[in-house]
Amino acid sequence: MAYHIFIDGEAGTTGLQIRERLEAREDIRLIQIDPERRKDAEARREAFARADVAILCLPDDAAREAVRLCEGLDVRLIDASTAHRVDKAWVFGFPELNKDNRARIAEAGFVSNPGCYSTGSIAMIAPLVAAGLIAPDEALSINAVSGFTGGGKNLIAEYETGEAPAHFVYGLNQNHKHIPEIVQQGGLTVQPIFAPSVGNFAQGMAVQLPLRLDRRRSIPALHDALAAHYAGEHFVHVLDLGEPGARIVPTALNGTNMMHISVQGDQDTGCATIVAVLDNLGKGASGASVQNLNIMLGLDETIGL
Ligand SMILES: NC(=O)C1=CN([C@@H]2O[C@H](COP(=O)(O)OP(=O)(O)OC[C@H]3O[C@@H](n4cnc5c(N)ncnc54)[C@H](OP(=O)(O)O)[C@@H]3O)[C@@H](O)[C@H]2O)C=CC1
Ligand SMILES: CC(=O)N[C@@H](CCC(=O)OP(=O)(O)O)C(=O)O
C-alpha cells in the first residue's frame, strides 16, 4: 500500500528538498500538478482531495489559503510556514519537545513545523525551563547565524547574483516572525532578545543561547538536564562536555536531519553558551517535515532521513 502525498509549493526551496527525500520511496506516491497551474486554486484543491497528507511549503498567506481550500476534505496537513505555529488548533511539529508531543503528532490532522531558528532555540530553552534551570521570566538573548537558503528563493537570488554581503545581521526591531513560537513553545513569559544573521553559505545554522551560571546552574547541570531530555532520541544529540572543541561550524550537519546541542563556558567567570547546530533545510524545515510525515503515517520516523 502506498500513501498519497501532495507537496504544495514543491518547486520552492523547502518543497524541493522534501520532494528529493520522498521521490525514491516505494511507500509514497507523490501527487503533482502541472507547474503552470501551481497557483490555481482548483488544481490545488483537486490535489488536496487525492492526498492522504499534504505538506504546505508556501508563503504564509498562501498556506492560509491552502487550509481554506482543504475545508471539507479528508486530508491531513503539515505546514512548513509560520502561519499556524502558535495556533492552538495545530500540533507543534517538534516531536522531541516533551514526552507527549510525538504521540500528538501521530494523531494530528494539522501539524505546524517550527521555524529553523525556532527549532534550535526551543530545543535548548524548553527542557531547561521544564528542569527549572531557566526561569520563564528570565531575560534571555539568542544569537544565530543561518545560511542564505533560509530566506527562500528571493534571498538565494541575491547571493547567486553576488549582490548580498558576506554576512549581515537583521531582525533588529525585535519583531522576527519566530519570536512568538519561541516564547510559546519554550515556556517563556518574557520575550527573548533575538539577534539573527545570515552568512554567505547556502545551508546550515548555529543558534546560541548565552546564560549566566551560578552554583545551581552549573555547566554540568545544564548539560545533564539536556542530555536526560534527549536521551534515546535519534535526531537530537547532546554532545559530551568538551566535544565540540574551540570552533563550532554551522554547516557541520548539512544534508542531515540531525541537531547537535553543546554546552560550553567557564564556571569561574559564570559565563556559558549553549549552541544548537542544524541544517535549516534539514531539521529546520524539509527533514523535519518528512520526520513528522513518517510519525503521522505510523512509520519508523527515520525512513528516508
Ligand atoms: N527556507 C527555509 O530554510 C525555511 C522555510 N520555511 C518556510 O517554508 C515556506 C516555504 O519557504 P521557502 O521554500 O524557503 O520559499 P520559496 O520562496 O523558496 O518557495 C515558495 C514556493 O511557494 C510557491 N508559491 C507562492 N505562492 C503560491 C501560491 N499561492 N500557490 C502555490 N504556490 C505558491 C512559490 O512559487 P513561485 O516561486 O513561482 O512564486 C515557490 O515555489 C515559507 O513559509 C518559509 O517561511 C520554514 C523553515 C525553513
Ligand atoms: C535566513 C532567513 O531569512 N531566514 C528566515 C527564516 C527561515 C524560516 O525558518 O522560515 P519560517 O519561519 O517560515 O519557517 C527569516 O529570518 O525570516
Textual characterization of the structure:
This protein is an alpha/beta fold and 305 residues long. Helix content is 31%, strand content 22%. It is globular and about 65 Å long. The model has no long low-confidence stretch (mean pLDDT 97). N-acetyl-L-glutamyl 5-phosphate (X2W) is lined by residues 81-82, 115-116, 146, 150-151, 155, 177-178, 196, 198. One of its GO terms (biological process) is L-arginine biosynthetic process. Residues 4-105 form the Semialdehyde dehydrogenase NAD-binding domain. Pathway: Amino-acid biosynthesis; L-arginine biosynthesis; N(2)-acetyl-L-ornithine from L-glutamate: step 3/4. It is found in: Cytoplasm.
Keywords for this entry:
single chain, 305 residues, Rossmann fold, 2 domains, seven-stranded mixed sheet, 9 helices, 31% helix, binds NADPH dihydro-nicotinamide-adenine-dinucleotide phosphate, binds N-acetyl-L-glutamyl 5-phosphate, arginine biosynthesis, NAD binding, N-acetyl-gamma-glutamyl-phosphate reductase activity, NAD(P)-bd_dom_sf
Placed side by side, the strands forming the largest sheet appear as 8-9-7-10-13-12-11
Please report which band the strand proportion falls in: under 5%, 5-15%, 15-25%, 25-35%, 35-45% or over 45%: 15-25%
Average pLDDT works out at 97
Quaternary organization: single chain
Major beta sheet summary: 7 strands, mixed
- At CATH level 3, the topology of the largest domain is Dihydrodipicolinate Reductase, domain 2
Instruction: Report how far apart the termini are.
Output: 21 Å
